[in-house]
Write a structure and sequence with these properties.
Length: 462
């Protein structure tokens, strides 16, 4: 079965979105505290967005002796202990059994404290705004214990911030914190991982690498602002003898890959939506080529506008042109297609095989690629608006026809053109992370810090 993916590409993507939502705290001299392990990549991005230092709060869930997955409380560094007495009574846990669980988790907490911090003291939070971050929340027991630990250390206020939680999260945890920020509270919540494209377990080495990177000069405070995108340069692409197409090439210094854009019917290289996505890719170190698939005269012919075979021919011609350009030679190639352009991208990718390292479709009609879908080998991400029901169904059918690595990513509440607030930003983030994962040097993100195993993605097979 092809799974629907609704919210976040991975923890770093979630952290970038969360950092945007917490922007109002930037002038309050905040400290970002992440819950290891999963909260550290999220916290890293939040700290970058706020120009704030990053540290961790060590907490361990107390699982029932009879069902370790069922949390009955938590412990945190500093001797903080939070136990839901009602659960203890309900499950018949004896005091000695509870203390055995506490002792075991305390030993693990001390191990992680030595591993992640070494001899360093925790960052001071006294009198400051402490922003506690995790990759999501289910029951909230560990978060409550961490919040109590930060209050005990003198934090002026403790803000708990997560990308996703079950409905009512903010109200349910509101009494335990000065403020709760939960970006998404979807119905049908069964677990945090269901709302991520990549949610594999992080290793201690990955957590340590992110914490060490944040402590180095030029990390969170200095790197909070994205560099401006490089300027565009006009190009002419020879699609056939005597036929030239106008394009705009944006080539960041040290570009990791080149993404060719295939616009949809009635659009052109000047599409504001594609340009916004292209800008996000440029800031992540990806070169982009936006070009007109048709001449001005051809664009007046509706038959040509919807001629997917012709559009795929033009895209393949532009790909050959790019491969021969000295400034672009050797760059891995990817496609970004919208509407009918998505079908053209998949058809061209089927023809070119492993020459195309990845394909992204925005509100596309991949079904129009027909039988060619079975021949696509390029990892393919199909991004669809959650309120674009007809196109969503067509994308899910197309995903079942694909035999390559593929994902269907749903932007909640978005319609076909992604005009809703924040919708296009989600498209850009999903596209950026997918393309970096498959084209950008073993999935390395823009700042050069490896996101670890969770960034490689998993194939959903129908």
């Amino acid at each position: 079965m092809v799974e629907r993916l609704a919210l976040f590409a991975d923890r770093r993507d979630a952290g970038r979105r969360l950092g945007e939502a917490l922007g109002r705290f930037r002038d309050e001299d905040p400290v970002v505290l992440a819950l290891p392990r999963g909260g550290v990549p999220v916290g890293y991005e939040v700290a970058r967005a706020l120009g704030a230092p990053l540290d961790i709060v060590l907490v361990r869930k107390l699982g029932s002796p009879f069902n370790p997955e069922y949390g009955i409380g938590a412990i945190a560094e500093g001797g903080i202990r939070f136990v839901r007495e009602d659960d203890v009574e309900l499950t018949g846990i004896r005091p000695a059994e509870l203390e055995e669980v506490v002792a075991r988790e305390t030993a693990e907490l001390e191990r992680r404290q030595h591993l992640y911090r070494g001899e360093r003291e925790p960052l001071p939070v006294e009198g400051r705004t402490a922003i506690l971050v995790d990759d999501g929340v289910a029951t909230g027991g560990t978060a409550v214990a961490a919040g109590q630990a930060l209050k005990a250390r003198g934090a002026r206020q403790v803000v708990f911030a997560v990308p996703v939680g079950p409905p009512g999260t903010e109200a349910r945890l509101g009494e335990a914190f000065d403020e709760v920020v939960c970006l998404e509270q979807p119905y049908g919540f069964f677990g945090i991982g269901q709302f991520y494209v990549s949610f594999e377990q992080l290793g201690d080495d990955e957590v340590t690498a992110l914490l060490e990177a944040e402590r180095e000069p030029g990390s969170s405070r200095e790197a909070a602002a994205d560099p401006p995108p490089p300027s565009e340069q006009p190009v002419e692409i020879e699609a056939a003898p005597g036929l030239r197409l106008s394009g705009d090439l944006c080539l960041p210094e040290g570009a990791r890959a080149l993404i060719l854009f295939a616009h949809g019917s009635g659009s052109s290289r000047l599409s504001p939506r594609n340009r916004e996505v292209a800008g996000s890719l440029n800031r992540a170190g990806l070169a982009t080529l936006l070009f007109d698939l048709l001449t001005d005269e051809e664009a007046q012919d509706r038959a040509k506008v919807f001629d997917v075979e012709l559009l795929a021919d033009r895209l393949a011609a532009a790909t050959r042109w790019a491969a021969g350009e000295p400034s672009l030679r050797g760059l891995p190639l990817g496609y970004f297609g919208a509407s009918t352009g998505a079908a053209a991208a998949l058809l061209a990718a089927a023809r070119l095989g492993d020459e195309i390292g990845a394909v992204v479709s925005r509100g596309g009609r991949p079904d129009l690629a027909g039988a060619a879908l079975e021949r696509v080998v390029s990892p393919t991400l199909l991004i669809v608006g959650g309120a674009d029901w007809q196109v969503l169904e067509l994308n899910e059918e197309a995903a079942r026809a694909l035999h390559c690595e593929r994902e269907v990513a749903i932007v909640p509440g978005a319609t076909h053109l992604f005009e809703e607030p924040g919708a296009l930003e989600r498209v850009a983030a999903l596209a950026r992370d997918w393309l970096l994962r498959h084209l950008g040097g073993a999935g390395a993100p823009a700042d050069g810090i490896s996101p670890g195993r969770g960034a490689r993605g998993r194939a959903r097979r129908s």
